[in-house]
Amino acid sequence: MIRRAFTAAIVCGLLASTPLSAQTAPPARIVVKTRDDLPRYSYRLPGTAVAMLNADDATFAAFAKPIAADIDKTLSGYSIADHAAQRGLLNDRLAYEVITHQDRAGLATIAQVRALQDKPDAKLTSGLRTEAILKARIATGASSGPAYEKAYADTYTAALTALPWAVVANTIKETKSNTQVLSASLAEGVVKSDIEPAVAKEGAISDRLVGGLLWARMARTVEIPLKDISTKALTSYVAANNVAKPDIWGARDVELTAADKLTPVVVGVWDSGVDLALFPQQTYTDPKPAPGLPYNAHGLAFDVDIRPSTGPLYPLTPEQAQKYPTTLADFQGMADLQQSIDSPAADAFKTKMSGLPSDQVPAFFESLNFYGNYLHGTHVAGIIARGNPAVRLAAARLTYDHRNVPSPPNEDLSKRGAAAYGTYVEWFKTHGVRVVNMSWGGAPSNFEHDLEVNGIGKDPAERKAMARKFFEIERNGLYAAIKGAPDILFVAAAGNSNSDNGFDESIPSSFVLPNLLTVSAVDRAGDEASFTSYGKNVVVNANGYQVDSTVPGGARLKESGTSMASPNVVNLAAKLIALDPTLTPEKTIALIRDTATPSADGRRHNIDPKAAVALLHKK
């Protein structure tokens, strides 16, 4: 089953690459309608991925040359309308150009990438540091030494100084935080975590993973030697401009009380589990719970292998419980770093990451993923429950796979997943659930990745076919389940890949159904988040940046992601239905959509709870 939470992370995305390229395509090109239509390539390695990462320049250049050739072949032979896919290909080619000192070609590629950016901040900041590196090389004729470093520092500082803070603040803070924790051991550790499992089993790497190796090489050989200079420039720019963006959400919020004559509203938190002890007055209790698994008094649950389970919250072992407070401090440190907040938690996290040996990085990432999943559902539930005494939370627990090498996809697992979707939704229907939050999703590419790291499939073409088969089983099961519950409003998170959810075929967010609403993320000022995905069926935006909520045990934590934007819309929907229980999903969506505030460029439609409630009262 697809179980990937849509919470944005700093560290786990440090070396991620994105897909990319071409301008106007001649008719002879193969038309690419979805990401699945792109061609697949595979590259054999003579040894390990880490050995190639650390190889001499000539060896790595020889390995990377056919990768660049295949990128150009894709760009020239395929008509790719999707900007994110084009950017991904171009960014991988840019890494190759930087590594192989094709400096002027790299500058041209950066210009292409910027032209394909859709978000205002990305148009200004995309490739900014790489551009400064390439210009310093060209100006000095060197790639190391005092003259080169000064030219880089001057160029990067000047480029940063010219940026409008109000537009780029979030992106620059994120860049600063990523720069501060980046190290050679982390770059090597990411390769060990994300790429080495596939190479160990296959002796090769697909084009879907090879971008990570290119960027790790670029980080190790080009960016990390300049880390101190980059950090100084970023820190100076942030310090000179760090005025908090205005918060639009406080004035828009609505807090209900018993005086509003509310009707209880059952909301399904379809997520990783909820610490319901934190919501004693807002928990749904089944008066006649069905006997046996997966049912319980407050919902239902399936485990990571999609077998019936129990309990509203995933149970921790004694060892995991002991580590939980320390890991919460890590998450707090990441959140503070993302906002350029100087705090003991931020300092401790920077120190931990800087000193982390590469051999410990894979286990550290798995631990972060595990605890991130563990707290995810409760954080979502806290957002949903805010300011609404009529909400009744039902925990529909699924289990995300946190491992670097997850369970291998197979037909039986997908069939169990499709059947489980039906079980969840049938429970929603029979227990009067009115709204369901889905801050998760997946796509065919996820299946391909999981097949590759498990060493399944003789080549990328076979993995593509297998992934498509498994994905279709789950997609059809989920679509049928949601469509078959027309009286329930389902709210989906758009995703965090900065791409079109329709092109990616992300489910459930790309579904077009009258009872489903897909949400993308903006920040406290209502500006589009750098990570948020988008699409034709994304009609509203909500706060998904550094959103404060509760986590298991009762601590507070700020998290970012469309996972946080979606429950903000569910919060509003549940309030509207509590005020008027006759509302259908279609009428609820209309109230939310019609009162959203459009941006000047038409890209955003930020929800306005106060206006939606006012419109409801007028009807």
From TrEMBL:
Entry-linked Gene3D superfamilies: Peptidase S8/S53 domain
Ranges in coiled-coil conformation: none
Protein keywords: Hydrolase, Protease, Serine protease, Signal
InterPro entries linked to this entry: Peptidase_S8/S53_dom, Peptidase_S8/S53_dom_sf, Peptidase_S8_subtilisin-like, Peptidase_S8_subtilisin-rel
Keyword Cytoplasm: no
Domain Peptidase S8/S53 residues, every copy: 265-603
One Pfam family hit: Peptidase_S8
Keyword flag Metal-binding: no
Signal peptide positions (record): 1-22
Active site: D271 (charge relay system), H376 (charge relay system), S563 (charge relay system)
PANTHER family: CEREVISIN-RELATED, PEPTIDASE S8
Protein family: Belongs to the peptidase S8 family.
Protein name: S8 family serine peptidase
Organism of this sequence: Sphingomonas immobilis
Organism ancestry: Bacteria, Pseudomonadati, Pseudomonadota, Alphaproteobacteria, Sphingomonadales
